[in-house]
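Hi R.,

Here are the chain sequences for the assembly we discussed:
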Amino acid sequence: MRVLLLRSLRERFRRTVLTSLAVVIGVALISGTLIFTDTISRSFDEIGEVSYRGVAVAVTPAVPIGTPSSEGSDDDRGLPKDTVDRVAGAPGVRIAVGQVSGPAIIYRKDGRTRVGGQGPPTQLISALPPGVGGVTYTSGRGPTGPDEVVFDTATAERAGVRVGDTVVVQGEGPRRRLRLVGTAGLGEIGSFGPRPTVIATQATAADLLGREDRRYWSQVLALSAAGTRDEQVAADVRRVAGDGATVRTGEDQGARQSKEIKDRISFLPTILLVFAGIATFVGAFLIFNTFTITMAQRQREFALLRALGAARGQVRAMVAAEAFTVGLLGATLGLVAGFVVAPALRALIKAFGVDLPATATVFSGRTILVGFVVGMAVTAAASLLPARRATRVAPVEALRDAAAPPGRGAVPRGPVIAGAVIGVVGVVGLGLSLAGTVTDDTGTAFAGGGAGLLFLAATLISPVLVGPIARLLGRPLQRLFGLPGRLAQDNAARQPGRTAITSSALMIGLALVVFATVFAAGLRETLRGDIERVVAAPVVVQASGGSFSGVPTSVVGAVRRAPGVQSAGGVGFSRVAVGGRRASLTIFDAEALRTGLVRLQRTDGGGRAGDPGVGRAYVTDTVADSLGARAGRTLIARGTNGEDHLLRIVGIVQGSASAVSGVVVNGETAAEFGTTQPFFVVADGSREAVQRALSRDYPATEALTRGDWITDQTGQVNQLLGLVYALLGLSVLVALFGIVNTLTLSIQERIRELGLLRAVGATRAQVRRMVLLEAVITALLGALLGAGLGFVLAAAVGATLDGFALSIPIGQIALLIVLTGALGVVAAIRPARRAAKVEVLEAIAGE
Amino acid sequence: MTPARDVLQPLLCVNAHVSTPIVQADALRKTYGRGETVVTALDGVSVDFAAGELAAIMGPSGSGKSTLMHCVAGLDRPDSGTVTIDGVETGSLDDKRLTELRRDRIGFVFQAFNLLPVLTAEENILLPLTIAGRKPDPEWLESLIATVGLGDRRDHRPSELSGGQQQRVAVARALASRPAVIFADEPTGNLDSRSSEEVLELLRRSVDEFGQTVVMVTHDAHSASYADRLVLLKDGAIVHDGPAGGSDAVHERLRQITDPEADAAGTVARDPRT
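And here is the predicted structure of the full complex:
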């Protein structure tokens, strides 16, 4: 049997490889994701470790309760300036040094061309004495004078600036022209993580960031005297550091910092693995189909083996061994391919603005284990049913004439009924999750599982639809192409199960693409509606390119002073904790509310909402419900600076997911909670006048008309959609391999038919066209089912979102469907060429 | 159909042997393999088939009868020699022209797998016309379906027809485009004797009633007895060409060429299947 197995694998080498390819792609994506995320995880650990190398104790501003540290509010907090002296006085502390850090914007020499801008905001940090903090200078030296600055190596490269060049840096305080004296990295990593980093002296950094003595240091680091234990020193420092400070050992702080960053990007591996899982799931369809077809074609071979005395178990073992080989081959190649996928994923993420650090590639045992387990398990699961069917063959089959491919197969009822049942279960699961009956992780599992079951159900039911849809699509094809169209339609429908599974693989990919498209269109429209309702100002000023770092607070005043501008106000977003629960904080400058540049609708019967006043707030309807808040009540809210303030509720306003949410206060109130920087500024007057007024002092800001600004805001959804498309493209690719495989096998099966067609006068072109059209029908079948399913899913998910405006991007969906049909043609090129090459004599003399 | 044949048809039916040939094969040679293992399938065969005749080609296994038919029918190319069908020399045609020639001038009936399983009986009959994008003449279609006796089964698919019915559909398909010649390769090879009779009757009638030319390769003496003419092949050469006669006469001819006594050069084992 072993000889037979090896022969059989060798004979079918090409097919084995093609089948393995489905496993390869799935495993490559999974292992690539694991390698990628392990690598960046290790890099962050190293960054955390190197940053606190030699540091015994780190003192940081206490994180306010209810505001998770990962919310990125370090920049708003600070330790009093005298903390350094107090820490230095603690027993066991040899030296204490403070560091200032905060967000900044950097420009090239001209003061206009912004460096970075997309992706994570740039951070400005003050230089530490040599030997503390692990910074190494890759060229030049550290900053020593007041007008000197250092860039991290990658940022300097991207900015195209060299040591000796002049650059412009701006933080919360005044802009300053500084000279680049060096480039730096952390330890051997050469990077500070995804945030572009610039280093200045302590005095310069504090000035640029506008620090005041009360909240000066971002952290204070202590180096210990010889013979002390870090834990002991930490305990001693804790006694002197003061209430608003958190004290940890340097090692702890490093680990914590890397964990914070990793938590912040923890969604990334999850998302990537979900997409890898989808591609693997689609690959399982391909494997299932290939095995089913090849097993059917080898019925006689198996029957002969049985007739010659092979036990059923032996035949099964042979088939299982073939599946095992496919799985093993696929998983191995997939793991190797993972090394290519990992940097590709990094490049993809980088293309969307986030440059994640990568030290030496991490290839862990877990990656190998997961790769093999997934590859083998998927292959085993997908080949189980075909293998069982193969071994049920009766020995007498060997004596029968070669089974001619059926004219038109019947659709077995069992799977269709099972599909209907599974579909109902899927709908219930999805429904429970969307209706909010089950929540959190269980809810996510229900939603994912429900959607997965829906796909399975659609696959099981789809054989019933193959006939009707093939006829529907076939009729125009027949009219256009004559006989090839007619035969393509019949060939697609003759084995509905096979066609259904082939197109189902495509259906899944397309359903998700359409889901993303419809959902994104809905999101765009919702966003547009929300913004249009709230922002009435004719001019909006934002950071150039719509960067999410906001604009300096002083921009508001500059806009107000612009000729022709009567009124202007900032709009910002932050967070507060109310009763230990997090809530959004939406900030409108009083002037903007008073003058109607922004309009808030009251839902408690007060018409338009004006300025709530200092220490007063509106709450949105949803927050009012969840907090039981009413006008006249008072809340205790804690800001990102950790301070508690009373807020008196003066009314309830209509909320919207993207523009107005949580607690609404004016700018003065927000300042008490530690938030001053607006995201954008609204104004009246003319765009040109505002732009001119800003161009000198704030070159990194842009003034847009209301319409342009809204388009710009809603356009950001498209960027995300692009990333989703790129990741789903791989699933579609796997599905296309499925079409290639199925067609190739079907053509082999129908070789005598092709010969006959050629004998009675069909030209090669007609045969080729027939195969191409069959692929088009199969692809369109998947596209139509997928589009329908994706739309329903998007509508269902959208229905649960507050005020989600479902819109149907008909043009886009139609384009996707047409594109899929075209991809079907591409997939069929090779099989069609092979079909056209069939020699009449060989075909009719065959067997 | 050419006008000339229209006029000549009544004449051809009556006096087939003196008419101009529809198929002319001249000095066909074909070898397979190389060096030591070279096999000469056709060794300079020349043969003509006249309009309106039913000719049977017979011969023992390996005699070259199938190769002869494949070369003459434009399915295979001879190493040398020429084939002319209905005035067209096939050797100079490219694949596309040859395909069109097969489509328009030649009908085929194979031993098995004659029909496309996805098409109905009627659609199968019309296949050559559909491929060519031509509309069938409804009267001609009706008379064909009546002749092959499939009136009530025209909308059935091949899998719903018996073997005999399938072969009759195949003959009807071969007739549908009114080709210059029909090549039948073991048309009754897979059939029981009753079905065989029906198919052979049909071929006979197509010659007698429609003036069709039919060349049939067979191993069965009884089938050959339906023919007007018997061509016997052995070792790639024609060893007999004359009127077929009855079943017994055909048997006698066959016995002569395969008898070890009559042929000292070597015995050709008779395989009834090929």
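Residues 464-534+707-847 of chain A form one domain. The CA atoms of residues 243 and 434 of chain A lie 44 Å apart.

Let me know if anything looks off.

Best,
T.
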